[in-house]
Specification:
alpha+beta; Jelly Rolls; TIM Barrel; eight-stranded parallel sheet; six-stranded antiparallel sheet; 20% helix; 34% strand
Length: 835
């Protein structure tokens, strides 16, 4: 099929509500905001308060126009728009050929008889989303109301981590398509079965064949490029099915559990010697199953669920489950400990997303020991680059359909029709990606409902509009009607999937009204079977802050810019005590009063490390009662100080380094419970491991341990086990504010170090330390200390292989580093708690 790309430069025109005109150069793919920004008609919307200065854009109408030249005209030609945001009328040579009202759909418009030889003119008129929805009824919502009537990216109507940017534009590619007499419309490749005989792969094809004589060639190559299957079939039908058996297949595994070999499928339609159309795609061989075995009454898991259900104030009265069950992801029949985070759009203007940044962020996720990303429902179906990278790097994906935190107009036939169309468009495009393991109907719409109710928000959308499409087009993949889902109510913690973000009100109250003396116990209250959202919060690195704040903004006493870029949730509990207030309270109450702006920044950063470390270790110790933890969130959509563990510019925050350490395949973890200190070794590998564990009290100013307990251990594959248990009196009578409890493990798996604080970090009497860099080159450095230091933080425009680590007296530590996405390198500063 011939295609004429119509991307690049277009003429742009803005029309104000009062009839003013604003001419500019448009770019496709692109949007109004980025075009005006490029011409200097608006200031950088990421810097300080500048986002406020471009809010007028959403109230204008906009036009994009271009010409193109044809030297031949083909029958059955059509214009294809892969993405239009959102309400448009489209004109070709002055004649209206179509209209659109959904950002998430791709559109084809038949232009047979409307094209002409020579110069053709194409115009797209965009209408203000705000004006298009005036007078429509609003529904229950979080954040803003008009968004529930508009099928476009929900988060950029304003969320608690991104500013309001209601833009419009041709945000994906445009092309004139001139098909031959046969086309490959879609291909669906899936693993039908996996057993001792090998794997059976199903290939479903939809073709558009006009006339006779066309043949289909199919070929599968293994990951090394060796052709293992070939077939030549007459294209007599527009729907074709082929089952292919592959002996001794190379299986695809999530990161940390194995390799990610990808096979290649080639399909071509030929007529004689002429190729009419072709398709190539990569796929992996793997199976997925969600295991939800009920807990046996009075079993260990059952008793733990009863305890969690009554945990005040997080769940008491909010979990009404009378029976309990797990939620375990099985890949190729093996249980996987899911460790990951939520993915949001990389940009508030999706056309700015690029393959380089996407690849970088997914590779960084793998390096940080994440094995799953959840594509959140207030964003979009991601570009192909995202899913390709997840396939390559072994990052499991769960994909929400695009609704979030609201009651939507499910009684409106137009709305339900659009959801079905969106589902069909997305499923056909994404279903061949091996990394994608389940679909979810929405984000949090049905949180208060349950499967025993005949009606609740999100039910009709999931079960009548989206679910049937998934069942038809992707029957080999799991569909979950909403997230959270599975308990009574859906957001409960002892059954199915939950979101711990629902307890943010309790968290605010805890941070505001307590001294955090019991913070270890508090965070253990968030234990659940599978958590698809576990909130964390922390400040970015100074390198990133300097890109959207001034020096005085960062370090001065006026925190207005901090609040503006931390954003805030509109829920009532956030009105008088904002998210930034909670972050400050955690920083001071855990680590001590802020001595100056530099000390404040470090503590606002380190909060996130400690939060992630504690939470992830709790889930690791309770492996298989809990089988998954996804933090809110992985990346950022706008320069902010808030929920992400990697900031907008691609630099890891402290929480990323806390995750990287606590999500390693094998870690140590110390728990104080029922009068004993227990040392756990958490093994997420498919091999049994062995090694030595040392639990010891480390004084701050002396190298020798005060007391040491040692043991050899063996831990079976995919298991967390307590390998040492010491009566608390043996430790508590010795340890004080000038020492800390550490555990080192080493063995055939490598090594790890865990620490335990019976009190808050601020209660430690840390000595003045002399931490210095004793060796440094272009990719590594060695750090040394004379006394114990807690949370050594390295600041620089680099990716460090470790950060916010502890050092014992006279200990030397080598740290490797490299440049990240668009990093400029430069100096590396070193700081630590109490410096």
């Amino acid at each position: 099929m011939k295609k004429l790309a119509l991307n690049g430069e277009w003429k742009g025109l803005g029309i104000s509500p009062t009839g003013e005109n604003l001419e500019f150069i448009g770019t496709v793919p692109g949007c109004v905001h980025t075009d005006l920004w490029a011409e200097g008609k608006i200031s950088d919307p990421y810097y300080r308060y500048n986002a406020e200065e471009c809010q007028w854009i959403e109230n204008w109408d906009w036009e994009y126009e271009r010409t193109f030249v044809l030297e031949e005209i083909s029958e059955n030609s059509y214009l294809e728009f892969e993405g239009l945001d959102t309400y448009t009328d489209i004109y070709l040579n002055g004649e209206k050929i179509g209209r659109t009202d959904d950002m998430f759909l791709s559109y084809r418009f038949n232009v047979s008889g409307k094209l002409k030889m020579g110069i053709n003119t194409l115009k797209v008129k965009f209408y203000s989303c705000i004006k298009m929805t005036e007078g429509k009824p609003t529904f229950y919502y979080a954040f803003t109301g008009e968004r529930t009537n508009i099928r476009r990216m929900q988060c950029t109507f304003g969320w608690d981590w991104v500013q309001r940017f209601v833009t419009c534009g041709i945000w994906k590619a445009v092309q004139l398509c001139m098909p031959e007499k046969a086309q490959v419309e879609s291909v669906y490749v899936y693993t039908r079965s996996l057993d001792d005989f090998g794997a059976q792969i199903g290939i479903d094809m939809e073709l558009n064949v006009q006339g006779e004589g066309a043949y289909v060639n199919m070929k599968i190559s293994d990951p090394n490029g060796l052709v293992i299957f070939k077939k030549h079939r007459l294209a007599v039908e527009n729907t074709m099915l082929e089952n292919v058996d592959i002996a001794k297949p190379k299986l695809w595994w999530p990161s940390g559990y194995g390799e990610q070999p990808l096979y290649t499928l080639n399909i071509e339609i030929i007529d004689g010697e002429k190729q009419l159309d072709c398709r190539e795609l990569k796929f992996g061989i793997r199976t997925v199953r969600i295991l939800q075995l009920p807990d046996i009454e009075n079993s260990e898991y059952y008793k733990l669920s009863q305890k969690i259900k009554q945990h005040p104030p997080l769940l008491a009265g909010g979990d009404r489950n009378e029976d309990f069950s797990g939620f375990i992801v099985l890949i190729n029949g093996k249980p996987i400990m899911v460790k990951g985070a939520n993915w949001v759009p990389q940009e508030p203007f999706p056309s700015l997303q690029c393959k380089e940044k996407t690849d970088f962020l997914i590779e960084l996720a793998k390096e940080g020991n994440l094995n799953m990303l959840r594509v959140w429902g207030g964003g979009m179906f991601e570009h192909e680059d995202f899913y390709n990278a997840c396939d390559r790097y072994g990052i499991l994906v769960s994909q929400d359909f695009l609704m979030a935190c609201a009651k939507y107009p499910e009684e409106n036939p137009w709305f339900m029709e659009r959801l079905g169309q969106e589902a069909a468009c997305a499923v056909k495009r994404l279903r061949n990606h091996t990394s994608l393991i389940w679909w979810t109907g929405d984000n949090e719409n049905a949180a208060e409902g349950n499967e025993n109710m005949q009606d609740y928000p999100g039910r009709k959308a999931a079960l009548l509009a989206i679910g049937p499409v998934v069942k038809l087009l992707d029957p080999w993949r799991v569909f979950i009607p909403s997230s959270p889902f599975g308990g009574v109510p859906n957001k409960s913690s002892t059954k199915g999937i939950t979101h711990n973000s629902f307890y943010s009100g309790d968290f605010l109250s805890y941070a505001k009204n307590t001294e955090l003396l019991n913070y270890l116990d508090y965070f253990q209250g968030f234990l659940a079977r599978f958590v698809a959202e576990a909130p964390v919060v922390g400040a970015p690195s100074i390198v990133s802050l300097r890109k959207f704040m001034t020096h005085e903004d960062i370090y001065g006493d006026n925190d207005a810019i901090w609040r503006y870029h931390t954003k805030n949730n509109p829920a009532p509990e956030f009105k008088t005590f904002e998210l930034y207030d909670a972050l400050k309270a955690l920083g001071e109450k855990l680590f001590g009063s802020f001595r100056n702006g530099h000390d404040r920044l470090f503590k606002l950063q380190y909060v996130e490390y400690e939060w992630v470390r504690i939470t992830l270790e709790v889930f690791r110790r309770n492996k298989w009662y809990s089988s998954g933890l996804l933090f809110w969130m992985y990346n950022d959509c706008w320069p902010a100080s808030g929920w992400s563990i990697v900031d907008y510019y691609g630099l890891p925050k402290a929480g990323f380094y806390g995750f990287k350490r606590a999500a390693k395949s094998v870690i140590a973890s110390i728990e104080k419970k029922e009068g004993k200190y227990n040392v756990f070794v958490c093994n997420d590998t498919f091999q049994a491991i062995s090694g030595k564990a040392s639990l010891y009290i480390q004084p701050f100013c002396e190298a020798a341990a005060l007391v040491k307990f040692e043991c050899d251990f063996q831990v079976e594959e995919n298991t967390s086990l307590s390998v040492m248990s010491i009566e608390e009196a043996q430790i508590d009578k010795i340890i004080n504010e000038k020492s800390i409890l550490l555990c080192d493990i080493a063995g055939n798996f490598g090594e790890d170090r865990a620490f335990f604080l019976a009190k808050r970090p601020q209660d430690m009497q840390l000595p003045k330390a002399n931490v210095k860099i004793i060796q440094k080159d272009n990719s590594s450095m060695t750090v040394e200390t004379d006394v114990y230091v807690h949370a050594v933080g390295l600041e620089g425009d680099y990716l460090f292989d470790d950060n916010y680590f502890i050092l014992t007296p006279n200990e030397k530590k080598a740290v490797h580093y490299k440049k990240g996405y668009q990093s400029k390198g430069g100096d590396i500063d070193i700081t630590w708690l109490g410096k």
